[in-house]
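ok trying this again, last paste got cut off
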Amino acid sequence: MRLHRLDITAFGPFGGSQTVDFDALSAAGLFLLHGPTGAGKTSVLDAVCYALYGSVPGARQGGQGMHLRSDHAQAGTRTEVRLELTVAGRRLEITRQPPWERRKLRGTGTTVDKAQTWLREYDATARAWKDLSRSHQEIGEEITQLLGMSREQFCQVVLLPQGDFARFLRADAGARGQLLGRLFDTQRFADVEKRLAERRRATEARVREGDAALLADAHRMQQEAGGAMELPELSPGEPGLAEAVLGAAAVARSAARERLTVAHCRLSAAESGHAAAQRTLDEARELARLQGRFAEARQRAQRLEERADAHREARERMERGRKAEAVAPALELRETAEDEQRRAARAEAHARGMLPDSYAEAGAAGLASAARRAAEELGGLDAARRAERRLAELVDERAGLDRQERADEDVLREADAWLAEWDATRGALQSRIESAQEAATRAEQLAVQREPARRRLNTARTRDELAADLEEAQHRALASGQRALDARAHWLDLKEQRLNGIAAELAAHLTDGEPCAVCGATEHPAPARKVAGHVDRETEERALAAQQRAEEQHTEDERRLGVVREALAAATAEAGDTPTAQLAAHADELEQDYARARRDASALHAAQEELRRAEHERERRQADRQQAAVRAASRLTRRETLEREQATLEQELTQARGSAASVAARAAQLERQAALLTEAADAARSAEDATQRLKDADARLADAAYRAGFDTPQAAAAALLDDAAHRDLQHRLDAWQSEEAAVRAVLAEADTAAAAQQPPADLAAAERTAAEAERRLREAASARDAAARCGTELDRLSARATQGVGGLAPLRAEYDRVARLAALTAGTSADNERRMRLESYVLAARLEQVAAAATVRLQRMSSGRYTLVHSDDRTGRGRSGLGLHVVDAWTGRERDTATLSGGETFFASLALALGLADVVTDEAGGVRLDTLFIDEGFGSLDDQTLDEVLDVLDSLRERDRSVGIVSHVADLRRRIHAQLEVVKGRSGSSLRQRGADGS
């Protein structure tokens, strides 16, 4: 990396624009940056760092860049830093503008513009600069990737702060570890330590969980085994727990098998006694059953003897019923004939009741003859009915001619009236069409003006909304800015309080007999104590995090404010300054005029259609008037013809109607009379036939009853049984026979008769004996089942415990392995003799490289006297790994770097810084650093040592490096000709550059 040019405007103490030509300064290899205290030497280095990373080193960062603006700058001058450099073979130009507060372009008050960043690259082929990006994030990532180091590393490697390395020489292992950890990014090794510790805790928890499950199974086995199992007095995670649990389980299983064997023997004895008692009970029950069966059969035989008379009567009743079944068809036939005769008589009486009295004594033949005469007369009225229908048609037709005549008169009257007004109607419609055409033309003109007015009104409303949003965004940005400043002030206050109480923190790490990290004393008679309200590092870091969050929120509010401001400017440019109400009124007026014109224009088509319909109506009315005249002439001839035909038909109908009102009424009378006479004749014939069938049925019934053995038909009807009575009587007879046969069979059984001769059976005593035997069997079976369940459960739990122990073995082995690794990387293992953590081990290797690189320059600076060496010895009871000693060639002894004098400390820290720069550069990927800055410390050197130090710095030119020295030493201004002087003044500082040739 080589710096070429730096332009500064309104930055830090520089109120105006200043330019640094690093190419001219670097021509001599060494150049001096000097000036009075407070002039702004460090601000030049801050500008370089800000251009690259967007922030300045150390505690000077913060405030979202608001503090970077010069208090000497003019109100309209914006702060800007532009750096031109070459890195990784690419020539880049970075321009950064921090946020700044300026006056509003309109109105009163101030507003804050957001930060801006530009990145350009020089194209050697086109001989022009080309833009790469304007994104803060993209530019930051690009620069960090090209340089290969973070801002902290850059400030330690390129901007060499000698005070920091002097403190590094005298610091303890913890402070060195923090600095080296930031430079070499060893957080991944600390993450490995943390990951191993977390994995150790996780595997330990799983081992304890497995042991807890094993103990739970052991407690369940103890519950099953009762007092035959004793659990070990061990907790989860203790060694030997698994073996003790498995041994106790084996003893419990053995005892359970013994109990099961005893239970089997007792169960066999109980089963034998129960079988004997059951046989005795079965024999007693069989004897009692046979004796009861014999007694029951005797009782049933006695009941049969008592019901013998009723059985004989039922048998006789069944016999009479069978005889009566032969007479049943004749009975049913006689009942059917009687029913038919009654129905026929009722039908005949009803039919005669509908006839006149003159037919009361007429027979069936007379009624039929009268019906035929009425039918013949009805047939003669057909011609009269046709004439009557024709007469009705003539009347209707004449009425239709009258209606048609009246309708034609109305048509002629309406047509004459309408045609009289035709000229006025046509003129009015023509006027409406012309008005609508004019309105359509006016609507087209208004439509052209309407859309721009609406668009301008919407933009004006957006402008008003954005104006309100702008004010709100400004308030929010000011509030977040104030919160950011308050958070920064709070963080700085806490930082100052912590620095004031840092002695108490350092005193907390003091050990008797060990040197103090500040003064080097080994005795600590009065170490500082923490007071109430002491601020520790965690509190300070929380405040710093809160301050950073507040700054991020402020940046976001500033970004939103810029977006709203840009949108407001665009809306104002389009809408102008015309009030929204005025634009709305104008737009509404245009809308109303446009709607009115559209409404008037919409009547054009309707008016044209109405004119077309009116012309069609005129033609139709003229045609209707002509057709009405033609129909009037034809109606006159048709009316005369109808009148002659009507007179002839009326004469014929008068003769045919007789006394009836009409031919149809006379025909209806004859039709009804013929139907009634026919129905009465049929009913009379049916009644005569039914009476004859009833007489025949009576004769057949008397003959059937005699042949069946009954004196009268009534006796046969009384003896006849219906289906239900027959089934009931047959069921009683069958039941008697079945019962009689069953009783005889039981009384004839040999074993039943033999049992009846024996004494009564003692069933109760046999049941008590069997119940006692069954109780003893149940108790023995229950004991056997309990012993079997206990053994099975113990076997299952033992198998699960054995499986759990087997599954836990790899986990326990993994825990032992992880625990050893975690203890080894944490420095707490006995195998780690120096108690060195993994991160400290890596940092010790880096420190050893730094010490080797620094020794090369330190020997030249000290004329070969001093050599820096890394020491991994333990300090007291602490851990080892980050010790740094100096070897004095004059004495041959190795001593702590804290014993060096002020001048020795300076050139030792300078050598250490240059060595660290080389190592960090290699660590960053070998990026070449062609420009370095060394800040202060040269005033502590004598002339000879100063010459040697300058020779070492001058030797850096061998690798085409340029080194800038920041110092107050007057002798350096004589020795180094290329200079950049910072001149302090009331209106701000300025830069004065002089080349190696003095120009």
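PB: full thing came through this time. The chain has a mean pLDDT of 76.
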